[in-house]
């Protein structure tokens, strides 16, 4: 069975991990058969829901760093499993059928049969992904005494219809934070670093940041910050690199370098 994630080792003395959970479009054939959308509608759904070129951006930004972070990249589409959702009743997106295993699409259309049991996908893909990222953070704690996760995303200029956060701000950069795991000084660094692209807003339109559940609200040595970037900073209308791709890559590289002090 092919792994749904890739770990690219960085400098062994770096405690930084860049997590890229939503960049891929790949669906295994057995998963594709579960999806009710025809090929055209599936293509449109992948265009809407994929954080296009976020993995490419991170690879570009870290390629020449003297002390690169470790990269943890999801190789499968979030339509297989969404590794950033809670796999239980805590997940707010269950309200719209878009929990760890999506039953609804971004438009609210039925993505899978309403009676679909996602337990197999959780076991096959979600749990190994979560364990590998947990083990990576644990290794960084053992090696470096701390770990910092930079959780990297993008989002469309317009919110999709099937959402729970309509009406919130959609700035060039959204900085997701956690009261336990995100130091205020790290937030200030991010705000300063990305101010060149315009306004940044905390926790709108997306709030929080990824921390493996074994450490969540428990281990203060695990830091985390989410960078949610409006897609026009990365891509053009055809989902190719946009005019600000290189300048954003430079800013991200600088942020990663400076964040090594946290």
Automatic annotation (TrEMBL):
Pfam families: FGase (PF05013). SUPFAM superfamilies: Zn-dependent exopeptidases (SSF53187). This is Unannotated protein.
